[in-house]
């Protein structure tokens, strides 16, 4: 699937630290962490070391992954490269 700007939102803007972003789409983690998936990050204010949480919306059983912004292109609108995703909360609940 292709990136849709409406699916990305900044959920925390700090004065001195990284921003935290949330992205929900039907895209798998492997697609999201492909260089340039987010095509307009620079124009939206994304910076290196910002954090992006990604939720695959295709199923409720999908884990949430966290990514770090590795680079933001200086060419407008600033394509973003995200790190590989790390599972934050698995879909498994053993209790």
Describe this structure in words.
The chain is mainly β. It has one domain: Roll (Archaeosine Trna-guanine Transglycosylase, Chain: A, domain 4), CATH 2.30.130. Helix content is 8%, strand content 35%. The protein has helices at 29-32, 41-44, and strands at 8-12, 20-25, 51-56, 64-72, 80-82, 86-89. Strand 4 and strand 5 (80-82) form a beta hairpin. The radius of gyration is 13 Å and the shape is globular.
Question: How would you summarize this macromolecular structure in one to three sentences?
Answer:
This protein is mainly beta and 95 residues long. The chain has a single domain (5-88), classed as Archaeosine Trna-guanine Transglycosylase, Chain: A, domain 4 (Roll). The chain has helices at residues 29-32, 41-44; strands spanning 8-12, 20-25, 51-56, 64-72, 80-82, 86-89.
List the helices and strands and how they pair.
Elements: E1 8-12, E2 20-25, H1 29-32, H2 41-44, E3 51-56, E4 64-72, E5 80-82, E6 86-89
Parallel strand pairs: 2-3
Antiparallel strand pairs: 1-2, 3-4, 4-5, 4-6
Instruction: Give me the Rg, rounded.
Output: 13 Å
Work out the strand percent: 25-35%
Q: Could you estimate the helical fraction of the residues in percent?
A: under 10%
Secondary structure: number of strands: 6
Largest sheet, described in full? 6 strands, mixed
- What is the CATH first-level class name? Mainly Beta
Number of domains: 1
Question: Can you give keywords for this protein?
Answer:
95 residues; mainly beta; Archaeosine Trna-guanine Transglycosylase, Chain: A, domain 4; 8% helix
């Amino acid at each position: 699937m292709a990136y849709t700007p409406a699916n990305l939102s900044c959920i925390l803007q700090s004065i001195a630290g990284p921003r935290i972003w949330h992205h929900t789409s039907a895209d798998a983690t492997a697609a999201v962490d492909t260089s340039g998936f987010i095509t307009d990050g620079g124009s939206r204010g994304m910076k290196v070391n910002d954090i992006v949480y990604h939720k695959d919306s295709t199923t409720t059983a999908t884990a949430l992954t966290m990514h770090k912004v590795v680079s933001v292109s200086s060419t407008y609108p600033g394509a973003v490269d995200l790190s590989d995703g790390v599972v934050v909360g698995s879909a498994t609940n053993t209790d």
